[in-house]
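Researcher: Let's continue the batch. This sequence belongs to Cell division protein FtsX, and it's 305 residues. Same format as the previous ones, please.
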Amino acid sequence: MRAQFVLSEIGVGLRRNLTMTFAVIVSVALSLALFGGSLLMSDQVSTMKGYWYDKVNVSIFLCNKHDAENDVHCAKGAVTEDQKKQILVDLKRMPVVEKVTYESQDEAYKHYKEQFGNSPLAGSLTPDQMQESYRIKLKDPQKYQVIASAFNGRDGVQSVQDQKGILDNLFQLLNLMNRGALGVMAMMLIVALLLIVNTVRVSAFSRRRETGIMRLVGASGFYIQAPFIAEAAVAGLIGGGLACVALVLGRYFTIDHGMDLSHKLTLINFVGWDAVLTKLPLILATSVLMPSLAAFFALRKYLKV
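Model: Same format as before. Here are the structure tokens for Cell division protein FtsX:
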């Protein structure tokens, strides 16, 4: 009987405050969808870091005869065979180096034509203008400075470049976007909490006569509060369910189908469905606990039980 009474009161409360309940559902859905999206973005950045940092190389570009005429780093002339051999020997002795690959001028020219063959500059370049280089894969990509300090300024070396620096700029941008999404989520969450508190207050005020009678007949505080807390929990759960649907549909239509980014952007290792599905229980639990706690504290202040 008590459970039936509580359930009937939930339905009454939701119908009485239909517009505010709808606003609570929408705000909870939006805030939790942004919350789930931010968690997935964080996972995506971590996945991309693990994928790309494992592939980045440090490149040691060697001086050619053209650099000797135009580049101050190559003032002593083009790299010699002895200098190239010594650089290779020193690289292989370094404990941070996992693998060293040599790229000749002809190979560099071929790779350039493959990547930028349609550019106007490609037609004016010749193989002897390209730079020989050593491509070094490090055991730990964070140890770039060890290579840079050992070979920058060395005879025959034009420059030492770290591809990780380019990726760091990309990841900083992604992290900035993620923090922006979290900021919007926080504002939406505050709006949702305020709406929940106001909805509970209105519901409690509209049923003050019933709650007064219940107090007179000796009903416990929890028994009086339970319908109001349950109303907020139900509204939040509906919003959480919508947020879960939004995340699943978003993953499906942007990555797998629709926009089909998984095939169009093959260089990006997108997070899988397992990452999405593991976030759904957290979103649903938050959608129930957050409104319930907000309603509980609102009732303690505004409902004298």
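Researcher: Any comment?
Model: Residues 163-206 form the longest helix (44 residues).
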